[in-house]
Amino acid sequence: MFFDILKKRRSIRRFTDQPIEKEKIDGLMKAALLSPSSRGIRPWEFVVIDDRETLTALSQCKPHGAGFLKGAALGIAVVADRSKSDVWMEDAAIASVYLLLATEALGLGACWTQIRKRNYTEEITAADRVIELLGLPADCAVEAIIAVGYPAEEKRAYTDDDLKWEKVHYNRYGQKKPS
Ligand SMILES: Cc1cc2nc3c(=O)[nH]c(=O)nc-3n(C[C@H](O)[C@H](O)[C@H](O)COP(=O)(O)O)c2cc1C
């Protein structure tokens, strides 16, 4: 079951108009809140967005790679208080991955929208634009926005043939599995 979810999870960028049931939204957030964090600090916060105007504005928070947020039923912004933990970024990324896996488990589709290190305009970062649109505290760190919805596209699941076993090393870099 767990490995089926890992194989079937693909980035979905086209969504139907079907809204997501409240129980499923709660399930997604439960997964995020269960994610591990360094020293158990849980520096993350999540903003669940279903307001169409806000989703449309968020879809323009960087010139490329965010357009699909416009058609998503939900965006989930994964943000963090950087003063709480020096490794907020790892914690926020793990929570984001938990969200992605939970969407697959609940029959939904999702795609990560990278915000950190991206720009809205030459002068304004994508994070600052998201801070403005979501009314986040000004020093908030914005990791990603996960677009979620019922899938309107199908992608093939990964298979064992897709696995790049050459990236796995044993005891020393470059050393292959002893036969
Ligand atoms: C850290 C990270 C950032 C990503 N940022 C974006 C993004 O901004 N826009 C986008 O369309 N996809 C984004 N993706 C999705 C990747 O393009 C996708 O995971 C990759 O092509 C592999 O495809 P798969 O998710 O279907 O396995 C991101 C994925 C990760 C893990």
Task: Explain the layout of strands and helices.
Blueprint: H1 2-8, H2 22-33, E1 44-49, H3 52-58, E2 74-80, H4 88-105, E3 109-114, H5 126-134, E4 141-149
Antiparallel strand pairs: 1-2, 2-4, 3-4
Helix pairs in contact: 2-4
The structure holds flavin mononucleotide (FMN).
Short description:
This protein is α+β, with helices and mostly antiparallel strands and 179 residues long. The protein is built from five helices and four strands, in the order H-H-E-H-E-H-E-H-E.
**What is the number of strand segments?**
4
User: What is the string of SSEs from the N terminus onward?
Assistant: HHEHEHEHE
The CATH superfamily is known as NADH Oxidase
Mean pLDDT: 97
SS summary, helix count: 5
What portion of residues belong to β-strands? 15-25%
For the largest beta-sheet, the strand count, sense and barrel status come to: 4 strands, antiparallel
| N/C terminus separation | 29 Å
Assign the structural class, choosing from mainly alpha, mainly beta, alpha/beta, alpha+beta, or little secondary structure: alpha+beta
Q: What is the 3D form?
A: globular
Which class in CATH terms? Alpha Beta
Bound molecules: flavin mononucleotide
Model regions low in confidence, pLDDT < 50 over at least 5 residues: none
* Helical content (DSSP H or I, runs of 4+): 25-40%
How many domains in all?
1
CATH arch. level architecture: 3-Layer(aba) Sandwich
Output the radius of gyration: 18 Å
The CATH topology annotation reads as: NADH Oxidase
* Spatial arrangement of strands, main beta sheet: 1-2-4-3
